[in-house]
Design a protein that fits this description.
The complex is a heterotrimer of chains A (about 270), B (about 375) and C (about 375). By secondary structure, chain A is of the alpha/beta class. Chain A has 11 helices and 10 strands. The longest helix of chain A is centred in the C-terminal third of the chain and has 16 residues, at about 175-190. Chain B is an all-alpha fold. In chain B, a hairpin with a 5-residue loop joins β1 and β2 (about 355). In chain B, α15 crosses α18 (about 360-370). Classes of the chains: A alpha/beta (about 270), B mainly alpha (about 375), C mainly alpha (about 375). The interface between B and C is large, with 62 and 61 residues.
């Protein structure tokens, strides 16, 4: 069938993915196709299910239905090709461990049971820390890091996974401008190496600059495709609701304005 | 000296000491993980819930063989934690409420069973009530073998699965993404914790055993930022307090072992909270104090630099103390100047006026303009 | 039943009511384990106050020992604010230490203290009727009954007076603060009530039953109602029920009264947990099962909508496709879901394909817009 012909070029293929918490739908029947070598943003309003979608793809939350394929094979067989950067706030940064230790955790999946990380893992960790500019912090206790530094540590941990496809949950959340720049450079470097990166993103202003592929999500899939084709008023209106009046650059405000930061950004975009 | 001699020769005392040290070591090491995973309360519930298991095991088998009682304790501890999970997963009742409910109900059941066999079995049950507050003096060689065997097994499993348990405790989600069997590891680590608890019950008692889980780790956490050191140190503190508590309670009549061990580990923890370098309360005070002093002398230095900056004469020109007093609105200028002189930043002229040393000029420029001497433009 | 048995039951019921009242607020504020901590930590206070007053039911002892309980709470908070320990660890450090101190005092000075370690855990309910409250030579009844009735009266009065404030401070501390309600004062007021109740109940029923009565009945009542006033009433009622059942059990099997009451609290809770009309285990399981199928039927409709008019429509709408490589349901589950959807008129069968009806399309549209709002 024609399906197999296209599959091998797809980094991620999600079909009919549905997730529910206590039978309240969080994601409805999502279909997704991400070609290899793309930087894809996943966007949508709060509660749209962006994080849930990533976790469902990674098998971290139970799904009501759906299949996930990574590079043409079921996720379970391809797990070693996938790297993950969870939200920074998901762990206790007061945990008694060092930056190098956290980064080496990225190798735990490749190490067999009972085997301790050794010289090779230390070397890989040092290289990854070098890439994110955190070399000198290797022996630092993780509670002494700033938000941006924490994010870089998480990125380094994903880098040592040496994956083909990365999933990153809000890596730009609460980081300083320098870190944001460093992350963007890293993403582009990964793309240059042919890797695929899926990023939960919030800032509508930077989409065109940072990404070449986008999925707009609001419980169901609104659109998925190249940024140039898909990132338009119509789709944003569908994803974010009526509040997208801002897109047209008018000053008229919706009455119930509790807009958050990312929507404020909408006003400045002229597609 | 006589205590040590006695220890070397007295079989009972040696058994007691070794047993208490073993339980402290294992409980401390596993407790470090429990505290990091915020499961302190679970330990409390499991240890109380073990009581009916101990009594039932005795009632069913009629035996007080340590291994049988330990298995009974572990089973009822497990049943209680499963019931907690069932209630929390299916209703809106929160974890702490469910834990407290199971703790009191199971313990009540244990007391009921105790009172029943007290009536029916008479002297046969003697010893079971030691499980309430612990009685190290009742430890015999067989207990020691059981405790050491189980404890060793627990520690070996902990070592073998070290990296998995570490990741599970720090970032279970990432562990799941790597494909580690998170649920299985959770069950495994909790099982180790349950075993660590039940091997201490005879010595410390079900009422206080939870403290042997939490407290050594709380003390150890103050001294280190490494997980490995934390676990080792918690084990060491646990063993030390077990040893102290058991010896003291054996030497002084009418002193229950459990509470004595708890007092020992509490003392270690309080000392750690107060005096640990860097994290300790006293270290924190000293830091604040020296920071305050630094801020005070820095502002005097900055004043001196500003004076020099405004005047045409060289930066190192001397100034009179009253001028500085006026600028600082009369704060302890003399002390500050002396402190700066000690750091080699100011110098006292023979006429009683103060001047900046070249180093003082550099530091003053840094303070006022935010640049170091070699750094180009002022910010 | 003789008079002393009635007295025992009376003391137990009044105690359970007093515990259930404060316990309800502890549970709602997610502080249930504080009842455990406080009831252990008051022990040295009780022992020392007993040395001084020589009377376990003296009001001075109650106040003095209760202060230990409030101090414990404050101490845990101080340790937590230093950020050296997390709250659960701080609690796990403080209360066993105080409790150990109390036990050591009791065992060391057992000769001087009319207290023993078993009584700490289980109280001496069986002997409570014989400690009489004498005023000017008149016997007014068991002293413990008077003491617990007094405590119950005080907490009922305070909770009634500050009902509104407690309610707001419990459900929305931020709002309470902005209304100038001083949540800290309310918090410590509540902690004082808990401590006083724990000390008063301690002599009669022992600390295990105090913990059971403060946690169990409110937890059971929480599965039956959403309204605070009803919750308080039900907690008191269920507490009294558990006390009565436990009392009966104790006499039937001739075992520790307080122990049997603690078991009865657990039994009452699990009975409610199983059969509560809306939140009970049976009801929840039935609802989840029903919802699972309803949800799947809607999912089926949405799936068909998504592929309507697309080139792969014919492929995607085949029944075997649903349990094939895409949706991933088991064949049995798919069969049941399709049958349900046909019965409810969401889809029609056309050969081996499923076609959406108008109702099915509307249901899917409704689910999507409702979910996306």
């Amino acid at each position: 069938m024609s399906e197999t012909a296209t599959t091998d070029k797809l980094a991620v293929r999600v079909t009919d993915l549905t997730v529910a918490y206590h039978h309240r739908p969080v994601l409805w029947d999502i279909d997704l196709e991400v070609p290899a070598g793309k930087l894809m943003a996943v966007m949508g309003p709060n509660g749209a299910g962006k994080t849930t979608m990533i976790k469902a793809i990674l098998g971290l939350v139970p799904t009501a239905a759906g299949r996930v394929q990574i590079l043409g094979k079921p996720y379970a067989q391809q797990r070693h090709l996938v790297g993950y950067v969870p939200q920074r706030g998901s762990v206790d940064w007061d945990f008694p461990t060092t930056v190098r230790d956290v980064v080496m955790m990225g190798r735990y999946g490749a190490l067999s049971w009972f085997k301790r990380p050794g010289a090779n893992e230390r070397k890989l960790a040092a290289e990854a820390l070098e890439k994110v500019g955190m070399n000198e912090f290797a022996d630092r206790q993780i509670s002494q890091l700033s938000g941006g530094q924490q994010q870089r540590v998480f990125l380094a941990r994903a880098l040592v996974q040496d994956a083909q496809i990365y999933f990153m949950d809000e890596p730009f959340q609460g980081v300083d401008a320098r870190t944001e720049r460093a992350i963007v450079d890293l993403l582009k470097e990964l793309r240059a190496l042919g890797r695929t990166v899926v990023v939960v993103h919030h800032d509508l202003q930077t989409v065109k600059e940072y990404f070449d592929w986008i999925t707009l999500l609001n419980v169901r899939r609104i659109a998925c495709g190249p940024v140039n084709a898909v990132f338009n008023q119509e789709n944003l209106r569908l994803a974010y609701g009526g509040r997208v009046e801002f897109l047209e650059g008018r000053t008229r405000r919706e009455p119930e304005n509790d807009i958050d930061e990312d929507l404020r950004g909408l006003g400045r975009i002229r597609p | 000296m006589s205590g040590i001699l006695e220890f070397m020769t007295d079989y009972t005392l040696r058994t007691v000491a070794l047993g208490s040290a073993t339980l402290g070591l294992v409980a401390g090491a596993l407790g470090a993980f429990a505290v990091l995973r915020r499961q302190s309360l679970l330990g409390d519930a499991v240890s109380h819930a073990a009581l009916p298991g101990i009594v039932l095991a005795f009632m069913v088998t009629g035996s007080k063989t340590p291994l049988i009682l330990v298995i009974g304790a572990a089973l009822s501890g497990w049943v209680a934690s499963l019931l907690v999970l069932l209630v929390v997963r299916t209703t809106r009742i929160k974890m702490d409420t469910a834990l407290g409910l199971m703790l009191s109900t199971f313990f009540g059941l244990g007391m009921v069973l105790l009172s029943v066999i007290q009536r029916t079995a008479g002297e046969g049950m003697a010893g079971l009530d030691h499980f309430l507050f612990g009685q190290a003096a009742t430890l015999v060689g067989e207990d020691l073998v059981t405790m050491a065997g189980l404890g060793l097994a627990v520690l070996i499993v902990l070592m073998l699965l070290w990296k998995e348990f570490k990741l599970l405790s720090f970032d279970p989600e990432f562990a799941g993404a790597l494909g580690l069997p998170v649920k299985g590891l959770n069950v495994g680590l909790t099982t180790l914790l349950v075993i660590a608890i039940v091997i201490g019950l005879q010595t410390v008692g079900v009422v206080l055993m939870s403290a042997m889980i939490v407290t050594p780790a709380a003390a150890a956490r103050q001294w280190t930022d490494r997980l490995g050191v934390l676990v080792a140190l918690a084990g060491f503190f646990g063993a030390l307090s077990g040893l102290i508590g058991a010896l003291v309670s054996s030497l002084i009549p009418r002193l229950p072992t459990g509470p004595t061990i708890i007092m020992a580990i509490t003392l270690i923890t309080v000392l750690s909270l107060l005096f640990a370098p860097r994290r300790g309360v006293v270290a924190g005070w000293l830091r604040t104090l020296s920071q305050r002093k630094q801020v005070a002398s820095d502002s005097i230095l900055a004043d001196l630099y500003r004076l020099a900056d405004q005047h045409p004469e060289p930066a190192e020109a001397p100034h009179e103390v009253p001028v500085l007093v006026a600028m600082r609105s009369g704060e302890a200028v003399d002390k500050g100047l002396a402190e700066l002189a000690r750091q080699g930043l100011t110098a006292l002229e023979p006429d009683g006026r103060w001047r900046l040393t070249p180093e003082g000029v550099d530091r003053g420029r840094h303070l006022v303009h935010g640049t170091l001497a070699e750094g180009g433009e002022p910010a | 039943m003789n008079a002393s048995m009635w007295s025992i039951l009376g003391i137990a019921v009044v105690t359970s009511a007093a515990c259930a009242l404060v316990g309800t607020f502890l549970m709602l504020r997610r502080l249930s384990m504080l009842s455990d901590a406080i009831s252990h930590a008051i022990l040295p206070g009780i022992v020392i106050a007993f040395f001084l007053t020589g009377d376990l039911t003296s009001p001075w002892l109650v106040v003095g020992a209760a202060a230990t309980g409030v101090l414990t709470v404050a101490l845990v908070e101080v340790i937590t604010t230093t950020r050296l320990l997390k709250e659960d660890a701080a609690m796990g450090l403080v209360f066993p230490a105080l409790f150990s101190l109390g036990i050591i005092l009791i065992t060391r000075y057992a000769g001087n203290v009319h207290l023993d370690v078993d009584a700490v855990l289980l109280g001496e309910l069986a002997f409570a009727p014989f400690d009489r409250f004498m005023v000017a030579g008149h016997d007014l009844g068991p002293r413990a009954l008077w003491l617990m009735s007094g405590i119950l009266l005080i907490s009922t009065t305070l909770i009634t007076l500050f009902y509104k404030e407690l309610k707001i401070a419990t459900f929305d501390p931020g709002l309470a603060a902005s209304l100038g309600l001083a949540p800290v004062v309310l918090h410590y007021g509540l902690m004082s009530l808990v401590s006083v109740t724990a000390v008063g109940a301690f002599d009669a029923v022992g600390l295990i039953l105090v913990v059971a009565l403060m946690i169990g009945p409110p937890a059971a009542a929480y599965l039956l109602t959403d309204r605070l006033a009803v919750l308080l009433g039900l907690a008191v009622g269920l507490g009294a029920l558990a006390a009565t059942l436990g009392f009966g059990l104790a006499f039937w099997i001739d075992a520790s009264i307080a122990g049997c009451m603690a078991v009865a609290v657990g039994v009452v809770f699990f009975a409610v947990f199983l059969v509560a009309p809306d939140r009970g285990l049976v009801a929840v399981m039935r609802r989840r099962r029903r919802q699972r199928y309803q949800f799947a039927e809607v999912m089926l409709a949405i799936h068909l909508v998504h592929h309507e008019g697309s080139p792969e429509e014919i492929e995607e709408s085949r029944v075997e496709h649903l349990h094939g490589k895409h949706v991933g349901w088991t064949p049995e589950f798919t069969r049941d879901v399709v049958a349900g959807a046909l019965r409810r008129g969401l889809v029609e069968k056309a050969g081996d394909r499923l076609l959406l009806t108008e109702l099915g399309r509307a249901t899917a549209g409704h689910a999507l817009s409702g979910a996306g709002a």
